[in-house]
Design a protein that fits this description.
alpha/beta, 12 helices, 16 strands, globular, Amidohydro-rel, Metallo-dep_Hydrolase, Metal_Hydrolase, Amidohydrolase family protein
């Protein structure tokens, strides 16, 4: 099946390239340009719209139904930051076999201390969004000596990267056992020796500094305990840039937990959203690579539409230009997670595509007017 998408503005994952045609065949982008010739079995009128790479959410948690919901909003790949082994195997099969759900990459089982975050949430979710049959004992890390075996087990599980948790519960309003700096460093070294990237869950400035000391590749959140415009955020942001570490933004997560009622799972104290915005602005000014991610769950932020909200927050409160935010949800995620076949629109890459009415490079709210979504070249019914 050869399809020509005619006359749309093209955002190629990094830049707006003007009005052009894109030809899709056998699941890949076959040609780009108004001179892209040859026959076409079908034509799609893109006039007045913008064609983008499928969006990539750089921080989610996948549950049953999540991948289908994500694809409805043009999120064609999710980076899953923790999923229990049994449901993860199910989601992987679904994404491999079908094109009506988003693709995913996953850390699999998260690395945390015994009793550490997020073990406190598992019991609360069992029976609601977690089937009791899917809940297994979480493999935790007791100390540095355990690191090599833990990483080896994650590789056997099929993990695409390693996620470690450095979190004493401060932002959750609880007191949790936290991973030691020595264990964080040992896990990072073992993962790097095995060829895995390492992403750290750290949501205070002190925890982020421990992650940086350990040598991680990315932070799964901005920090949220330092007041906006505090010089400490600027200093930490400069260190993040100097070490070449990326940061997943998750403003939609902090916005969501600031409005939850006290006592709900994962709630934070009001004010953390403003602090997170301050950290994000410091990181942006420092030139840190930013990846758009939501921390989507079955609750809030939601899969798919939550990433649209994240981009609105990045261009509003966060101060990013629209093209910067769109790159943070496409090519930047692909680059940092080694997804060389997606995140851009160019010949030979996967035809994971999103066509919207309007111009999101001027106003990202245009992403809400989805005209068509393709996953591996298969157009989704709407």
């Amino acid at each position: 099946m050869r399809t020509r998408i005619r006359g749309a503005r093209l955002f190629d994952g990094a830049h707006l390239r003007g009005i052009t045609d894109v030809v899709v065949e056998d699941g890949i982008v076959a040609a780009v340009g108004t001179e892209a010739g040859g026959r076409a079995d079908a034509e799609v009128d893109g006039r007045g719209g913008t064609l983008l790479p499928g969006l990539i959410d750089a921080h989610t948690h996948v549950f049953d139904g999540s991948l289908a919901e994500a694809l409805r909003y043009g999120v064609t790949t999710e980076i899953d930051m923790f999923c229990l082994p049994r449901p993860l195997a199910r989601h992987r099969r679904l994404a491999a076999d079908r094109d009506d759900v988003a693709d995913l990459r996953s850390a699999g089982t998260i690395a945390t201390a015994p009793g550490g975050h997020p073990t406190q949430l598992i019991a609360a979710l069992t029976g609601s969004v977690l089937d009791p049959g899917d809940v297994t004992e979480i493999d935790t890390v007791t100390g540095p000596a355990r690191a090599p075996a833990f990483v080896e087990a994650r590789i056997a599980e099929g993990a695409d990267f390693l996620k470690i948790v450095i979190d004493d519960g401060t932002v959750h309003g609880t007191d949790l056992p936290a991973m030691t700096p020595e264990t964080a460093a040992a896990l990072t070294a073992a993962a790097h020796d095995a060829g895995l990237r390492v992403v750290a869950h750290a949501i205070t400035a002190a925890e982020a500094a421990i992650a940086l000391d350990a040598g991680v590749d990315g932070l799964a959140h901005v920090w949220a305990d330092v007041p906006p415009e505090d010089p400490a955020s600027r200093r930490l942001a400069r260190r993040v840039r100097e070490q070449g570490v990326f940061v997943v933004t998750t403003l939609a997560y902090f916005e969501a937990i600031d409005v939850r009622q006290p006592g709900t799972a994962g709630c934070a104290h009001p004010g953390h959203y403003a602090n997170a915005v301050g950290a994000l602005r410091a990181l942006h000014r420092a030139g840190v690579p930013l990846l758009a991610g939501t921390d989507a769950t079955p609750f809030a932020p939601p899969h798919g539409s939550g990433l649209h909200r994240e981009l609105a927050l990045l261009t509003g409160a966060g101060g990013l230009r629209a093209e910067e935010a769109l790159a943070a949800a496409t090519s930047a995620v692909a680059d940092r997670f080694g997804l060389a076949d997606r995140g851009r629109i160019a010949p030979g890459l996967r035809a994971d595509l999103l066509l919207v009415d309007g111009d999101p490079t001027r106003d990202v709210s245009a992403l809400g007017d989805v005209t068509a979504v393709w996953r591996r070249g298969v157009r989704q019914p709407r």
